[in-house]
Amino acid sequence: MAVTHDTTADRALAEVPGRIKKEQRALPSFLKTTGLALLFPMLLLLIWEGTVRFELVAGHLLPAPSEVVGTIGAMAADGSLWGHIGITLYRLLWGFFWGTLAAVILGSIVAMSRNAETMFDPLIQAFRAIPSLAWVPLFILWLGIGEPSKVTLIALGVFFPVYLNVVGGIQSVDRKLIEVGKAYSLSQFQLVRRIILPASLPSFITGLRSGLGLGWMFVVAAELLGASQGLGYLLVLGQNTLAPNVILASIVLFAIMGKLTDYALKKIQTRALHWQDSLKT
Amino acid sequence: MSIQVERFGRSFDGVTAVEDISFQAEPGEIIGLLGTSGCGKSTILRGVAGLDTDYEGTIRISGKEVNGPSGELGIIFQEPRLMPWLTVLDNVCFGLEGPKEEQKEKALEILKVVGLEDFTGHYPKQLSGGMAQRTAIARALVTEPSTLLLDEPFSALDAFTKLQLQDMVLELWERYSPTMIIVTHDIDEALTLCDRIVILKGQPGELHDNVKVTPAKPRRKSDPKLAELKEYILESLDMTRNAQKEVRA
Ligand SMILES: Nc1ncnc2c1ncn2[C@@H]1O[C@H](COP(=O)(O)OP(=O)(O)OP(=O)(O)O)[C@@H](O)[C@H]1O
Ligand SMILES: [Mg+2]
C-alpha cells in the first residue's frame, strides 16, 4: 500500500484517527460475517459425518463427506478428474458460445426492426413454449449421440434467456438518450454503437448469467443421455456401479464449477457496468 | 441562422397540446419562450430541433423547411440526459468530431467555465442535479452551434451559478452571435438575455404576446425600461393564469 501511495497522502491518512479505527473494525466484522455464514454448513457437515461414522444411516447409500472428498482426491490423483472436467467445460462453453451468438444476432434484428419482430418473434416465442428437453430424441436422431447433439442441446438452453434479454435490453433503451444522439444527427450505425449498445449492456450481461445457469442444467441433461466421459457421465457411472460417493463427488464438482463460472461472469459484470447507478456500489 | 415558426400546432392522440403559434428569430437574435407549465414550450422546441416531425404548420431554419435533426443545432434538454456510461469529460465530447486531443482540450476549457474542471472523471451517477445540468450545458455549448435551443437550462441551479452561466451565454453570444431560443420560467432571466419574449398561454397553448426588449446588452438590472416590461409581463402571465382558472371552473 505505502509504496503506491503518495507519502503525504499516507501521512494525512495516518493523522485521521477515525478512519483508522474504522478500518480496524472492518476486518473483524468481515471475519464475523464469513464465520457466521460458514457456521451452519459446517454444522450440517459434522452431523452428516457423525451419523455415517456411528452407522446411524447405511454407509453404502450415504457416504460420509470425508469419503466424497476422498473420491475426488483419488480421481485427481489418477488424472481422470481433469478429463471429466475438461470435456464438460468444453461442451458447456461451445454450447454457450453458439447459443449466445444466435441469440445476439436474432435478438438484435428482432429488437431493431418492427417488421422482423412481427415476422420472427411469435415463432421464437412458440418454440420457447416447448420444453427444450423434448428435442433430445430428434437431435440424437439427426446428429447422432456424439458431441454435436450435446452442444446443440446446450446452445438451445442458453439461447432463450440471452435472446429475451437482448430484445428487452434494446427495446427499453431510454428514448430520451436516443434523442440526444439524433439531435447530433448520428447515423443509424453510430446510434447503435454509441448509445444502444452501451445502454443495453446491463440487460445483455444479465441474460448471459441466466443463460450460463441453464447451460449447466443442459450439460447435465446431455451427459446423462449418453456420454463416455464428463461430470454427467460420472452420475450415470455412480448409479450403475452402485457408488453414491461418485455421484456425490460429481454433484459437488458441478456446484464448484457452476459457482466459478458464474463468479467470472459476475466479475465481468461489475467491471463493465461500474457506471451503473444501482443500489450496490 | 434565422428561425421561422409558422402556425405551429401539435396534438397527441387527438388532444391538442399547442396550436397556431407563430414567431420569428432573426440571425443572432435571442428569443425567450415564456409560459405556464404544460402549455407546449418543450413541444415547440422539439419541433424546431427536428426531433418531432408530426406537427402542423411549418418551421424554417435559414429559409429551409425542417424535416429532421440537423447537426448544426445545439440543444439543452429540460433534463440533463447524460450518457450514464460516459464520464463528464466524455459526455461533453459526445457531439464533437475530430482528433481526440483537440476534443479534450475544448471540453476541458468549457468545463472550467461551468466550474466542473475537478469532476472530469466522474460518472453521472456521482453528480448532483445541478452538476449534471451544467455538464449538459457544456455538452451543448462546446460545439459552438450556430443555433442553440435551451429548455429551462438554468432552472436546476442556485442563484449565483445561474447568473454566472447567464453571463457565459451572453459572452458566447457576443463572440459569435448564435441564434437562440430559451425556454424559461424566470422573467428576470428572459429580460437579461432575450431580444424578444414570446408569451404562451393556456392549454392547449396559444400565442399570447410577443414583446420586443429593446435595451442593448449587457443590460443593467436597474434599467427602468426593464422594470416596466417586467411589470407588463407579470400582468399578462397573471392574466393567463386567471384565464386558465376560468377554463377549469
Ligand atoms: N409524448 C407526449 N405524449 C402525449 N402528450 C404529450 C407528449 N409530450 C407532451 N405532451 C403534452 O403536451 C403538452 C405540452 O407539453 P410540453 O412538454 O411541451 O409542456 P411545457 O410547456 O414544456 O411544460 P413545462 O414548463 O412543465 O416543461 C402537455 O399537456 C403534455 O401533456
Ligand atoms: Mg418543458
TrEMBL record, chain A:
One of its GO terms (cellular component) is plasma membrane. Gene3D superfamilies: MetI-like. It comes from Alkalicoccus luteus. GO terms for biological process: alkanesulfonate transmembrane transport; cellular response to sulfur starvation. It comes from the Bacteria. This is ABC transporter permease. The chain crosses the membrane at residues 29-48, 92-111, 123-145, 151-174, 195-222, 242-261. PROSITE patterns: ABC_TM1 (PS50928). Residues 81-265 form the ABC transmembrane type-1 domain. It is a multi-pass membrane protein. Keywords: Cell membrane, Membrane, Transmembrane, Transmembrane helix, Transport. Belongs to the binding-protein-dependent transport system permease family. It is found in: Cell membrane. Pfam families: BPD_transp_1.
Automatic annotation (TrEMBL), chain B:
Gene3D superfamilies: P-loop containing nucleotide triphosphate hydrolases. CDD domains: ABC_NrtD_SsuB_transporters. Residues 3-229 form the ABC transporter domain. InterPro entries: AAA+_ATPase, ABC_transporter-like_ATP-bd, ABC_transporter_ATP-bind, P-loop_NTPase. Keywords: ATP-binding, Nucleotide-binding, Translocase, Transport. Signal peptide: none annotated. GO terms for molecular function: ATP binding; ATP hydrolysis activity. This is ABC transporter ATP-binding protein. It comes from Alkalicoccus luteus.
